[in-house]
Design a protein that fits this description.
Low-confidence stretches: 262-267, 516-521, 534-542, 588-618
Largest sheet: 8 strands, mixed
Strand content: 15-25%
Radius of gyration: 30 Å
Number of strands: 20
Number of helices: 20
Structural class: alpha+beta
Length: about 625
């Protein structure tokens, strides 16, 4: 699966990103572009240059041979300057602990015995004088240590993967990398790696993004002065908005966030002291804009990487790096096991083509235009967007965004039942449906059948729709002609609900597998015709009720469904399962636009699923 990779800044926590890359390699995720801030920019640059996760740091290797990131940060900095920084950090931690105990410096001073106060004062004065030099350097240079050694080290690593003279440039990385820094001269965000930066060197740009204020001296380029990009955008997922818009594949975006579970409870309380106030203000500057950074990015997947180390704990992080890498990998693996992870758009397009082709054949829809798509509910819950589609490549609605509160396809998320939409009955100026949904669909597509997809397919057993879980997605099958007899048969409703469950399990990275036993031969044309005739002979009520007065939107009245038992579901599950197995052996096929019903999904004799057995999840 191809995707965009975004790596958050976080100083020493950045080792967790290596574990995330290791998990992505195991999941066969190929990042087409990388972006990052601060430590995330460093990892993104190495990955864009071609470093594998184990080349960066292999946690199972012997110390000293673990990879290019198995280093002591002090080796890259001026040792005397760094030692002064460490001493200052130690004093800060002492004061911080005193503040956390609730005493404060004033109360601590009052507890010192009066006869000892003069000695304590002299000791404090000596400590203060010892920091006069660092304070003067901080005042003059706006930072306590330089970064030249880091830039030279990083450029050497990049040059090992990208041979050639001079510093490695963004152009030599194929313009696949972008990093963010804060420009203090302009007071604005600065993006390195965009148009016009083909000849710009990568290592200085990464260092500009990683210049943690006051710790590192600002990175200067002429009159420009750059500091840590985390001040303006610590998870810059928005950097590839234009690429996402232009790419017809609708690739997912992974945003890897760095968190420290040990600090969560403590850091969600109101600061009670001055030092806690300063610390919390810095944290807020780095992460406060998180929701804005990913707003309106469809198919965005934010993955929290556990990193139990301080942002500036460079002196001790080398020993903790292997465990940070392991935790980063486990965090990504947990996400894909527990959440609705993204799937390869090419493969999901193939799954939907299988569904269309089988529906056309099963219901004898040959000659009619039939399409299929998947709506994914947005994080705000108010919208859903088309993320996967089949036979829609030339249509303007292949990325349609709909409201969940109106009478359009998005209503399925609210009603939690299959719905049928008749566009001929929909008033042209209906306020409940956005103009984009009304005008975006092709004129020859008049009828929609929309099925909710639940995280747990067992939710279909619940007769009260409002007691089911909220659908996370929906399967949309639309065509020019009415669905007709599908509205009459509870069995057919069950089959389409089961097909939606097949799609949902594929989106979760699981599979619906036919049960053992049953006939393996494909039903004959006579048997399918008899099935259609029996369907038309049913005299039951429609099983649908009108949601609006015009009858444009109808919702199913069927209370409980049995999914996975029909021949149609069994057949589709088998073909999709085989397609997944073939995908592991060969590159995914493009999401083409061949005519529905042709041989793109037909199974050869002997591969048909057994009938009358429930499908199970694997």
């Amino acid at each position: 699966m191809r995707a965009y990779g975004i790596f958050q800044g976080g100083g020493a926590k950045g080792y967790a990103h290596v574990g995330a890359l290791k998990a992505a390699e195991a999941l066969d995720i190929e990042f087409v572009r990388y972006a990052g801030t601060s430590a995330g920019a460093l990892i993104a640059a190495l990955a864009a240059a071609g470093y594998a996760a184990d080349e960066m740091l292999d946690p199972d290797a012997a110390p000293g041979t673990r990879g290019v990131l198995d280093i002591d940060i002090a080796e890259l900095l001026d040792r005397r300057e760094y030692e002064r920084v460490q001493r200052l950090q130690e004093r800060w931690r002492l004061f911080d602990k005193q503040e956390e105990r609730g005493g404060g410096l004033g109360k601590w001073w009052r507890r010192v015995k009066r006869k000892n106060r003069f000695l304590v004062f002299l000791r404090g004065a000596k400590l203060a004088l010892g920091h006069v030099g660092p304070a003067l350097r901080l005042y003059r240079h706006f930072g306590m240590t330089g970064t030249d050694g880091v830039v030279q080290w990083l450029d050497g690593l990049l040059r090992d993967k990208v041979p050639g003279p001079g510093p490695v440039t963004f152009g030599q990385l194929g313009m696949r990398l972008r990093v963010v820094a804060a420009n203090l001269r302009t007071g604005e965000i600065h993006v390195f790696g965009g148009e016009g930066d083909e000849d710009a060197p990568v290592a200085p740009a990464v260092m500009a993004s990683a210049c943690f204020p006051l710790f590192f001296r600002p990175f200067r380029d002429g009159d420009d002065m750059f500091v840590d990009g985390g001040l303006v955008s610590n998870l810059p997922a928005w950097l590839f908005d234009e690429e996402r818009e232009a790419d017809p594949s609708f690739l997912p975006t992974f945003g890897f966030r760095l968190t420290n579970d040990l600090l969560v409870a403590k850091d969600t309380v109101t600061p009670a002291s001055f030092l806690a106030f300063i610390k919390r203000m810095g944290q807020t500057l780095q992460s406060g804009a998180r929701n804005l950074e990913v707003r309106r990015i469809e198919d965005f997947h934010g993955i929290n990487l556990r990193a139990r180390v301080g942002t500036l704990s460079f002196a001790t992080v080398r020993a903790k790096a292997p465990e940070l890498v392991r935790e980063g990998r486990r965090s990504v693996e947990r996400y894909f096991e527990e959440e609705i992870g993204p799937r390869d758009p090419d493969f999901m397009g193939r799954v939907l083509r299988i569904i269309v082709d089988e529906l056309v054949r099963h219901y004898d829809w040959a000659g009619d235009r039939v399409r299929a798509s998947v709506l994914l509910k947005a994080r705000d819950g108010r919208h859903a967007t088309t993320v996967y589609s089949a036979y829609m490549d030339s249509d303007p609605d292949d990325r349609l965004r709909v409201r969940t509160s109106g009478l359009g396809a998005g209503a399925v998320f609210r009603l939690r039942e299959p719905i049928v939409i008749d566009r001929d009955r929909m008033p042209p100026d209906a306020p409940e449906v956005s103009k984009y949904e009304m005008k975006g669909r092709p004129a020859d597509i008049r009828h929609l059948y929309v099925v909710p997809i639940f995280e747990n397919p067992g939710d279909w057993d619940e007769p009260d729709a409002l007691l089911r879980g909220e659908p996370f997605a929906a399967l949309v099958v639309d065509r020019g002609s009415e669905f007709g007899s599908l509205l009459l048969s509870p069995d057919e409703q069950d089959s389409l609900a089961g097909i939606g469950a097949i799609v949902g399990e594929e989106m979760r990275g699981r599979h619906m597998v036919p049960g053992p036993g049953g006939a393996e031969e494909e039903p004959s044309a006579e048997a399918r015709q008899l099935s259609r005739e029996r369907l038309r002979e049913r005299t039951q009520a429609t099983g649908y009720r009108d949601v609006d007065s015009a009858g444009a939107l109808r919702v199913s009245n069927r209370k409980r469904r049995t999914i996975g038992a029909s021949e149609l579901e069994q057949r589709m599950a088998t073909i999709v399962l085989r397609a997944g197995a073939e995908r592991q052996k060969s590159p995914p096929e493009p999401n083409g636009s061949t005519v529905p019903g042709q041989a793109t999904a037909a199974a050869p004799p002997g591969d048909e699923p057994p009938a009358n057995e429930h499908i199970r999840i694997r």
